[in-house]
Design brief:
- The structure is a homodimer.
- Chain A is mostly helical.
- Chain A is about 60% helix and about 10% strand.
- In chain A, strands 1-3-2 form a three-stranded antiparallel beta sheet.
- In chain A, β2 and β3 form a beta hairpin.
- In chain A, α2 crosses α4.
- At the A-B interface, α1, α2, α6 and α7 of A face α1, α2, α6 and α7 of B.
- The first copy, chain A, binds a DNA duplex through α1, α2 and α4.
Chain lengths: ~150, ~150
DNA sequence: TATAATTAAATTGAACTCAATTTAATTTGG
DNA sequence: CCAAATTAAATTGAGTTCAATTTAATTATA
């Protein structure tokens, strides 16, 4: 009788792959709705933090979004071009670049409110499954952070 | 008494954001181990399909990986450069570009076998949670595909 | 059978992602 | 106080990622 061996190099036995694929597919669902706001997904989540915080350093934003200045600097410059934020160095510490939301940025929030219901991600999973997925993803993120911190 | 309103524009109320962040963080865990094989994550999952299929068209590969020719063409050219695959047009239908694994590509598999245990993703969640996450991600992927198909 | 429609890859261009390096400002230790 | 270490952003370069377009081959149809 042939022994059945678990092949860790099969795509279907990976947890990382469906995570990677699902992430891109879900972001893709946002695109048509974000196009209407002339925002990319990365710009959109950066604006989400700005709508919450009003003012934020690159470092803080990076911690919230799990992104570094290499990604964020051009994203924030682009949002500045569009007039949604303004950027300036902190007076007390000139190393820190602060990003602050503008009135135009606040106005964008009203239009952006329509995005989540239109994307309708919540219809892709049952309420219970969504809650469970949410819990698992944040557990995973927390464990990765904890693991790296202890390195 | 102040009414508590669910704010769909808060980062913490999104399901997409932790998916996007967790995906990137988990891929990041692979990097040091894949560096040793001189592979990127995208090249690695393409090789996974090649180890399974031996021969594959760009279209088939794209269906497996949820990627299009715009992404795959340079990835496959890079794998060809490294000698892990060879590429040629299908005789019956010259539109189809076939990718075939080489002996060197097969040899790489032996080294690659060490990657999944070294990454140790399985320690980031309990067995039960991993199984549940796996189920939820594939459900999500299936529902997105179904949704788009019916558009 | 010509022509039109379809299909598969490749190309192009804009934007993101990240590691590594650089620059500038601040903090720390001698 | 001053040199060394640290910190925050910006820059650079390689490699995705994707929509849109182009090219070439095949299939369908009038």
């Amino acid at each position: 009788m042939e022994e059945k061996i678990f092949d860790s190099l099969k795509l279907e036995n990976q947890i990382c792959f469906p995570l990677y694929a699902a992430s891109r597919e879900v972001v893709k669902l946002y695109r048509p709705h974000l196009d209407a706001l002339n925002l990319t997904y990365t710009q959109y989540i950066a604006m989400m933090v700005m709508w919450e915080e009003k003012q934020c350093s690159v470092k803080e934003l990076g911690k919230r979004l799990y992104l570094d200045s290499g990604t964020l600097t051009p994203v924030l410059k682009s949002l500045e071009q569009k007039g949604y934020v303004r950027r300036f160095r902190m007076e007390d510490d000139e190393r820190v670049m602060l990003t602050e939301i503008t009135d135009k940025g606040e106005e964008l929030r009203e239009k952006a409110k329509e995005v989540p219901p239109k994307v309708g991600c919540r219809f892709l999973l049952s309420i219970e499954d969504s809650i469970e997925l949410y819990r698992l993803l944040y557990t995973l993120l927390g464990n990765i952070n904890g693991k790296n911190a202890s390195d």
